[in-house]
Amino acid sequence: MAIVLRCTGKVLKELGIKKSGLSFISESQEPLKEWYVNLFYIDRKKCLIFTEAQSLFTFIVFGLYRKEIKTIEKVFRKGLSKILYYHNFNAKQINHILKTCDDFCFSTTISRKVLGSMNDMVFGYKNHLYLMEQITEEIEIDILRSLNDTPMGSIKYEFPIEVFTKYVLALSQNNERDLVENIR
Question: How would you write the pLDDT of the chain (184 residues) with one tens digit per residue?
C-alpha cells in the first residue's frame, strides 16, 4: 500500500493539484501509511508540517521554495529520515521505514482531530522559535523533539514518539499483519 499524503488546500495549491482531481481515500487502518501535510510560514519562508495520523508523530521542514515543494516525496523522505535519526532510531529501522515510502498518493484531509493537533504543534513550534535569539539546526531539532515528547489529548495523552516507536518496532519485526491487530 502506498503512503497517503493528506494535503490541505494550501499544499495542494503549491503542488498544482486540484481537489476535484483527487480520489477519496478512506482512513487507513495501517499505521505509518497515512500522513497529513500542511503549509505555514515563518519569517515569510514556507514550511511544511508532516504528521502521522495515528501516532501524531510530527516533523517540520523549514524554508522551502515552491520548486522544492513540488518534489514533496523527496522532501518527505529526507525530513522523515532526519527526525528519525535525531530520535535515536537505528539505521536498520530508518531504512526499513524509508523502504515503505516508495509509492505515494495524494488525498484531502478528513480528520479534524489530526488537523487540530497539527495546528497546536505549529503554534508550539513558532513560540519556541520566537523565544530564541538565534536559530541553529540543533535548536530546531530540539524543538521538534520536544513537540514529539509532548502528550497529546487526541491520542489519550500519550506521547507521539512513544506511539510511533511501538509501530516502528512492530514493523521492523516484520509483523505488519499483527501490527494492526495488536495496537488497535
Answer: 689 999 999 999 999 999 887 878 888 878 889 999 999 998 889 999 999 999 999 999 999 999 999 999 999 999 999 999 999 999 988 998 898 888 999 999 999 999 999 999 999 888 888 887 777 888 888 888 999 999 999 999 999 999 999 988 887 775 444 444 444 4
C-alpha span between 114 and 55 (Å, rounded): 10
Contact in structure between 36 and 58 (CB atoms under 8 Å): no
Distance CA 132, CA 13 (A): 32
Helix axes 91-99, 160-172, angle to 10 degrees: 80
Whether 10 contacts 38, CB under 8 Å: yes
Helix axes 72-86, 91-99, angle to 10 degrees: 160
